[in-house]
Amino acid sequence: MSIARSASSLQLARETRERFVLATGGVIAPMAQAIRDRLTQQASEMGNARSMQESRDDFVAFQGQASHWVALAQSGWRKSVGAPGAAPGVSSNAKLRLELIDDDAMESSILSSRLAQVIHDKASFELSDLRLRIQHLEGSSELDAHDVLRPESLAKLLVDQWLAAGLSRTLWARVQDTVQQHLVGVVVKAYEDANEFLISKGVMPEIDLKSFVRRTGASGGGAGGGGPSTVPGSAYAAGAVHAAGAPQPVGAVQRQGFDAPSQPRGFAPSVPAMTTGGSPLMVARQRAQTALLSLKRFVAARIGADVSNASSSPTTTGMDGRVPGAGPGGAGDGSSRAASKTFAGLIAEAEAAYRMAATQYMDGSGEQATVIQQASVDLRRRSAELKKRAPTTADKATVEIVALMFQAILAEERIPFSARVWFARLQMPVLRVAIAEPEFFGTLQHPARMLIDRMGSCVMGFDAAAISGSALEGEIRRVVQVIEQYPETGQRVFKLVFDEFVAFLNRYLTQSDATQRVMSVAQQVEQKETMAIQYTIELRKMLNDMPVREEIREFLFKVWAEVLAIAALRYGAQGEQTVMLKRVASELVWAASAKPNRADRARVIQDLPQLLQRLRLGMTLLGIIDEPQEAHIKTIGATLSDAFLSKTEAIPAAKIEAMAERLAHLEDFVSDDGSASNLPLDANSIELLLGMDAASIEVVADIAGGAPAEDMLAWAHELEVGNWFMLDHNDRVSQVQFVWRSDRKQLHLFATTDGRSFLIQVGRLANYLQAGLLVPAEEETLTVRATREALAKLDANPERLLN
């Protein structure tokens, strides 16, 4: 039910929307330029005929309609501020209509929903706070479905105007990652600025969540009083993505008592209903972020309820660490700082005491299960003592949540014992950082979370025997000890050791001789094929304005460019053999040109045997021998004969010399941007390169016509070294660990514990991810799963948060 608001409040809400539209509308033109730049680059890249034609068609289509799209989108976005929305107070039943949606509308909705979901993922907190402030100004229970502040509105407008400008959905799908890269940051910043603007106007400087807390009646065997306090939207956090079609993680807890996802209100993060088009990576991130959001809001709601029943103690803080009702320098600041300092000292004492006790556990000869149980009990006891002496409700809540998270982590039997005891030692350092930095509960990118997740994802694929006494166990021990040695550095020490651990993994997982050899071969295959593509591009440029027969062009582009690449790889770019083969290219171009005078014809006759010998040498280096080689020699010989008899004008000697000079320093003109694609990779090419027996390597190369989706390619590029996967290849399922990615990100190496290797090209890797043939062994990271379990326990027994 809406509440009447003053004209000034409504005007302030409108001004906020106008500022938001102005800030976000400014990105449309630069975004169009970024799309144009990308399509220009793709149109200039080499590939098969079909992909090259599609790239050119995309470029031409966008080039012709880009300005029209920008104008339509900017105009429509400016007008959207004044667009009438649904009438306030209309019931959800009155709004609900069942109607058939045609396929085109459905596809458009999917495209806009993907973009909106990415924005939601990055701006959930800022959007939730802004929604509350706007609702406060307007006296409404929820933003209108078409409100410009909803990410869905901007995403829908951009897609609709794209189609209105005559551009295709297929083209949008190909450039949507570019749109996301340029749009998301701007929208997030616009939400932040809108919140700051409203705070400067005195609108809810401190967001009080008490009014959004509802209590449910007891059910079943529950207590006779009110049930656990619930936060609107929490059910959404647990299940909205699942309802949209994403797989529920193994072991996920089905939580009860929260609002239904169909009733998002207050701070519930609103995500498009149609999310089935998102990639599993995007869905997993959304589920993880909503889990953190649900926890943060749940705890904030409990603290807010307690504050209202207390005497407004000036030292009681919210989850953001701020004191309600007391600005900087206000009453309570001094006592808060003193209490916090004292509490930090208590944490340090508890940490030191537990470290000594843990050392005794680990040095003893007890059973592993007993040692873990002792460690868990000791940690729980120390956490309870700290909780009693915590100076604020926020500190009490933080102690409880961290304790519950580490209970879940220590109960994870897939973490080998020798690693689990070191994970236990991290509880107190993590508590210390969570007290000082409440954002630990709000972001997946906090270094402490990232470190625990990375170590967990790596060790959960090994058995205890493989970890015990290994260099990996030693590195985990070193990481924990470094963190313990620098208690005052906050997240900086976690960031430092995280970077060091990632660097260690890159060395550790590739240290075996077999893996080193595979990496060496794969890296050189990629380098050779990339150089061949770039050499082809440069040769095309050189011959662009020269009258050279098509047969010679084809030979140089398809054969000799690869000869030069493999020669540069084997002998060096300026090696004697490489330099000689580079000269062959210019000599062949000259020999195949017209010879109107007698001196040139005599020179051709004299040099021809040596030229043919060098051509044979280059093709042999590439593995072209016997009949295929003879076929090339026959074609070249026929072309040279025609040129010998031709009376047309010869290619000027200066041009031939310029070409020879450019070929001699070809590496100076090619780029190393890692953009090569369509590498012709197979086991034979690996054997050819270094004479290596490729039987131990399973090569999974790209295939014609198997172009993956852009979001799947993005997922392939973001896989983290050390993570474990289940690979279904040729009807055989193997547990594999991702151990290496090549410099140009074209080749990815996965290894099994029994020594087998899978070298997978990036396009095929994306296809495997898309088809579910390569599946992460863990659908959630360790800390996200621990967060869910902690929230489930708090959900069942909310009183334990502060008791």
Structure report:
The chain has 803 residues and is mainly alpha-helical. The chain has helices at 7-25, 28-44, 49-79, 92-95, 103-138, 151-164, 169-200, 234-243, 280-309, 333-363, 368-389, 393-410, 417-424, 427-436, 447-459, 464-467, 471-485, 491-508, 513-543, 550-571, 576-591, 598-622, 626-645, 653-664, 683-690, 710-717, 762-771, 782-796, and strands at residues 214-215, 229-230, 697-700, 724-729, 732-741, 747-751, 757-761, 774-776. The strands form 2 sheets. It has a 6-stranded mixed beta sheet with strand order 3-7-6-5-4-8. Strand 5 and strand 6 (747-751) form a beta hairpin. Helix 2 (28-44) packs antiparallel against helix 3 and helix 11 runs antiparallel to helix 12. The protein is flat, with a radius of gyration of 32 Å.
Quick one: how many beta strands?
Answer: 8
**Widest sheet: strand ordering:** 3-7-6-5-4-8
| Rg (CA only) | 32 Å
* Beta-strand residue percentage: under 5%
Low-confidence stretches are: 84-101, 209-277, 305-332, 672-678
The number of helical runs is 28
Report the structural category. mainly alpha
State the end-to-end distance. Answer: 36 Å
Helical percent range? Answer: 55-70%
* Overall spatial form: flat
Mean pLDDT: 76
Write out key terms for the chains shown.
two-stranded antiparallel ribbon, 803 residues, 62% helix, 8 strands, 6-stranded mixed beta sheet, mainly alpha, flat
SSE layout and pairing:
Layout lengths: L6 H19 L2 H17 L4 H31 L12 H4 L7 H36 L12 H14 L4 H32 L13 E2 L13 E2 L3 H10 L36 H30 L23 H31 L4 H22 L3 H18 L6 H8 L2 H10 L10 H13 L4 H4 L3 H15 L5 H18 L4 H31 L6 H22 L4 H16 L6 H25 L3 H20 L7 H12 L18 H8 L6 E4 L9 H8 L6 E6 L2 E10 L5 E5 L5 E5 H10 L2 E3 L5 H15 L7
Parallel strand pairs: 3-7
Antiparallel strand pairs: 1-2, 4-5, 4-8, 5-6, 6-7
Helix pairs in contact: 1-3, 1-7, 2-3, 2-7, 3-6, 5-6, 5-7, 5-9, 8-9, 9-28, 10-11, 10-14, 11-12, 11-13, 12-14, 12-28, 13-17, 15-18, 17-18, 19-20, 19-25, 20-21, 20-22, 21-22, 21-24, 26-27
